[in-house]
Amino acid sequence: EIYFLSLFKNVFRKAAYCKKCGVCAAECKYGFIDMSPDASEIVSDNCKHCHQCHNIDYGCLRYDSIKLPSTGKERKMTGLDRYLTFGFKKDWLVEYFKNPENFWKTNTLGSKMVPVCKKFLRDAGILSENKNLELTDQGKCLQKLGASNIETWALILVNLAYSPQMNWYVRNIYPNTTYTADDMKSLLSDDIKKSVKDNIVSACRNIMKETPIGTEIGLGIPFMSGKTMKFLERKEWDEPSPKVILYSLYKYVEANVNVKEDETGAVEYKFTLTQLLLEDQDRPGISPSQLFSLNKNIMQKIIEGLSIEYPQFITTSFTHDLENIALDPDKTSNDLLMHLYGGTY
Prior knowledge:
The protein is mainly alpha-helical. It contains 16 helices and 6 strands. It starts with a helix and ends with a helix.
């Protein structure tokens, strides 16, 4: 159990660093922790196991105060709290696509929601990075598809997968496993404050609940009890779009541009199906099989179909145990998007 392992680490910190400062006793609302000098036992056998005494940074105030600083070698989990508690809603995109030019002057969003919406749309590749807040070429393609088209949200997800918050989610939340809010918080680094963890989990929950990315694409199906999420479960995309998969493949190789080069120094646009199916945490690229939870048979079928329909973008060889896939190195993911959805190339 993910949450249990987090608590288990706290127990060792408490045991190793305890000087009976009394913070744990103060946190226990039942009074079952006794730090007095003559106490026969610190924790009563009547303990309710409510975990309130763990609701301290790192489980122990003393450990938190004297822990060694980071060496800088660890991968820092920065930028995760991008969408505060709000996440994103489908209705926001519907409203934005209706009138992108005037949306930032007149909209139904709250004042704190507006900057969150900007970050999300930029991460999604829809909004330009400049101060003019213009639609990108990708944004125009998605506007043409519309906010009610599932492919719009699948393409958005491909781009979001390379932003800090969704990248963490995709790499750490596994298919066919249920996660409570506490489980998700436990997966986050101990260096992240509790309030920030709360924001991250709330934003992820709302994105899954309020957009097709969650239930329809399957990235996270939330099971709710009123307004409270009991748990969420990630599933495979039931009806994956081959065009979205092809776009995802181009984003995958582009992300790996500085990782794998051939002997001439050129970017390697060739890979195997087996490589796509490996979930390599050290590799910046996220394959469509990892993003949409697709197995080998589904991936092979889709890729073979793509090589027949779009031979100018992708070629394959699935014969004699060879599973080679090659993309055109002279084309980009943006070229592909324009060709597939923009009507021009």
